[in-house]
Amino acid sequence: MDFAEIEARSTIEEIDRIVAFIDAWCEAQALSDELRFKLHLVAEEFSMNAIMHGYRDREDGWIHIRLVAKPDALSLIFQDEAPLFDPLVEAATPDVTASVEERQVGGLGVHLVKEMTRFVGYRRDGQRNVLTADFDR
Amino acid sequence: MTLTINEENRDTVLVVSVSGRLDGVTSKTLDTHIGARIAGGSDRIVLNLSGVDYISSFGLRLVLVAAKKLNGPGRRFVVCGLKDNVRQVFSVSGFLSILTLTDTVDEAASAASS
Predict the structure, then answer these.
(1) Fewer CB in 10 Å around end: N or C, chain B?
(2) Which residues fall within 8 angstroms of residue B67, CB to CB, at 6 or more apart?
(3) Sheet of B3-10, strand order
(4) Which stretches in chain A have pLDDT values below 70?
(5) Amino acid B35: pLDDT
(6) For the whole model, what pTM was predicted?
(7) What are the two backbone dihedrals, phi and then psi, of residue A118, each rounded to the nearest 5 degrees?
(8) Which of A33, A105, A111 sits opposite B93 (nearest CB)?
(9) Which of A90, A100, A135 should one mutate to test binding to chain B, selecting the residue with the greatest count of B CBs within 10 A?
(10) Which residues pair with residue B44 across a beta bridge?
């Protein structure tokens, strides 16, 4: 089982480093552009959620991302130590059929994560929020 | 964080061409940029995304905000040049059916000037 992990501070300045980490791993695993795109998207949505809503812009927290490659699947496990925050429940389900006028701004991050993954789950583990996303490969 | 913004006036239409990533950081830059252009009187805008290979919910947000601001008589907002991964994000978010989209900048400029 191949895996890689990165720990970053809870600030948006770290997004660049997370992007580079995912690129390097996708390169090493020879993943398709589509899978690479999905991993970037899910990692960013989880990270931004934790930074903005979990830690509420407190910059001294940490976030941790672990990528795991199995023969038929990939997993992204995201952890932080922010107060209990389950983005999968907090986010309103967007009405994707509403017109431009009626369409609410926001709420699309979790929707995209659900669309891009085979499975996504949240659990509170002690002081940690743990999000797991699985992808078919 | 890499995002490049180029602009070109085509008669009454402002074409804003973007290259790079539209993520939680860079989307704010583009949102501020387009917001300033609209506030300055640009009411027909083409957003050319042919150089964009990544978009997250933050990029979608700025696109929707611009579409809302430019929704109305004499106002136009046209998006063009979606790459496959970007198109898929637009698709699952319902944006393909609510926005005016074209393949090329020429088609977009023409749609925005009509």
Answers:
(1) C
(2) A100, B77, B98, B99
(3) B3-10, B13-22, B44-55, B76-80, B100-102
(4) 1
(5) 97
(6) 0.94
(7) -80, -35
(8) A111
(9) A100
(10) B76
ipTM: 0.93
**Mean pLDDT confidence for B64-90:** 97
Integer Cα distance of B77 and B68 in angstroms: 9
CATH number of the domain bearing residue B20 = 3.30.750.24
Question: Looking at the domain assignment, is residue B111 inside a domain?
Answer: no
Chain A residues in contact with B89 (beta carbon < 8 A): 41, 112
Residue of B1, B2, B21, B23 to mutate for A, most A C-beta atoms under 10 A: B23
What CATH code is assigned to A2-136? 3.30.565.10
**Cβ separation B21–A19 shorter than 8 A:** yes
Taking the CB of residue B102, how many other CB atoms lie within 10 A of it?
Answer: 19
At residue A1, the pLDDT reads 66
Supply the pLDDT for residue A137.
87
Q: Please state the domain extents for chain A.
A: 2-136
Of A110, A135, A133, A131, give the one whose Cα is nearest residue A63.
A131
- A1 DSSP assignment: -
Is B31 inside a domain boundary? yes
Is B65 in the A-facing interface, judged by CB distances under 8 Å? yes
B82-95 pLDDT per residue, tens: 999 999 999 999 99
**Are B1 and A96 an interchain contact pair (Cβ–Cβ within 8 Å)?**
no
Nearest to A12 among B24, B56, B68 (CB): B24
